[in-house]
Amino acid sequence: MKRNTMIMSIAALTIAAVIVESCVSTKVTDKSGSQLWSENCQRCHNTPPSSAFTDPEWSVINMHMRQRAMLTDEEYKKISAFMQQGE
Fold first, then answer.
1. Where are the domains of the chain?
2. Which phi-psi region, left, alpha or beta, contains residue 34 (left: φ > 0; alpha: ψ -120 to 50)?
3. Alpha-carbon gap, residue 36 to 84, rounded angstroms
4. Half-sphere exposure of 28 toward its Cβ, with a 13 Å CA cutoff?
5. Would you give the end-to-end CA distance of the chain in angstroms?
6. Cα R_g (the chain), whole angstroms
7. Residue 80, class by beta-carbon neighbours within 10 Å (0-12 exposed, 13-18 middle, 19+ buried)?
8. What is the DSSP string of 37-49?
9. Mind listing the pLDDT tens digit of every residue in the chain (87 residues)?
10. How far apart, in whole angstroms, are the C-alpha atoms of residue 58 and residue 47?
């Protein structure tokens, strides 16, 4: 009986994760790099203007902040493009 309960719990968590991921992906797809930058970067601290750093410097900063802010691959790419090229 415990085994069936555990399997059902794992299945429910997996389904929930898939649903959440699909909702997040849909929302991110519709957002621009500047929107994502505003929502993710400015929620913790004041961010400098894109002209404050060179493209290689932004690359290092964005990679570091990607891990800290737990950004998805798509969010990371859009924010990086915005900061490096101004979209």
1. 1-30, 32-87
2. alpha
3. 14
4. 17
5. 55
6. 18
7. buried
8. HHHHTTTTSPPPP
9. 677 787 777 777 777 665 666 555 547 788 998 888 888 888 787 877 778 888 888 889 889 989 988 999 999 999 888 887 754
10. 12
d(CA 21, CA 36): 17
Query: Helices 73-85 and 33-40: crossing angle, nearest 10°?
Result: 110
Neighbours of 34 (CB within 10 A): 16
Is 32 within 8 Å of 82 (Cβ atoms)? yes
DSSP state of 70: T
- In the DSSP assignment, the letter for residue 31 is -
Q: What is the pTM of this model?
A: 0.60
Closest CA to 79 of 27, 36, 29, 44: 36
